[in-house]
């Protein structure tokens, strides 16, 4: 029998060491360090709630988008800010209202590019309704019945004699 050759390195030990090395990075990129600066965190959260893209916030606050994600996640869990779904619903409501106003203005000024604003307005409205749990479509089943089909069904039906029941007092 051949002796078993020992492994050149212990994979589990290597993985454990990599996790230990990554822990400082995880803290650095999840916003835990940044959260010590409450004024900066408040500004970041205010921008997120206002709908400013995270890339813009990251550039202005001089943090990574991962840091912003960590800050937002903790703020949502603590109830400090609304959930993503609630924020998106408000943002889509605002966008829908703005597009609707632009649509009305374009129609009134006869400057409407065909299929431009109505499509965008329809999509935004649909997504807003969907986020709010409203119906966004209707399914209708239509069956066309011809008179000949009804006549054929009547002819195939079996006639059954039923005896009247006797009433007992």
Quick structural overview:
With 169 residues, the chain is an all-alpha fold.
Per-chain topology:
Layout (H helix, E strand, L loop, with lengths): L10 H19 L8 H13 L3 H8 L3 H14 L5 H25 L8 H15 L15 H10 L13
Helix pairs in contact: 2-3, 2-4, 5-6
Structure report:
This protein is mainly alpha-helical and 169 residues long. It folds into 2 domains: 71 residues; 52 residues. The chain is 62% helix and 0% strand. The protein is built from 7 helices and no strands. Helix 2 runs antiparallel to helix 3 and helix 5 packs antiparallel against helix 6. It is elongated. It starts with 10 loop residues before the first helix and ends in a 13-residue tail after the last helix. The mean pLDDT is 80.
């Amino acid at each position: 029998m051949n002796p078993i050759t020992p492994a050149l390195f212990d994979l589990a030990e290597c993985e454990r060491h990599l996790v230990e090395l990554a822990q400082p990075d995880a803290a650095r990129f999840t916003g835990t360090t940044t959260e010590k600066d409450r004024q900066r965190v408040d500004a970041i959260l205010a921008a997120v709630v206002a709908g400013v893209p995270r890339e813009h916030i990251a550039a202005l606050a001089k943090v990574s988008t991962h840091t912003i994600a960590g800050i937002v996640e903790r703020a949502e869990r603590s109830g400090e800010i609304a959930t993503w779904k609630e924020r998106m619903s408000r943002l889509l409501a605002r966008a829908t209202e703005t597009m609707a106003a632009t649509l009305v203005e374009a129609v009134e000024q006869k400057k409407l590019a065909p299929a431009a604003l109505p499509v965008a307005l329809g999509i935004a409205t649909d997504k807003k309704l969907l986020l709010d749990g409203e119906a966004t479509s209707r399914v209708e089943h239509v069956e066309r019945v011809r008179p000949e089909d009804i006549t054929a069904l009547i002819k195939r039906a079996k006639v059954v004699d039923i005896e009247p029941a006797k009433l007992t007092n």
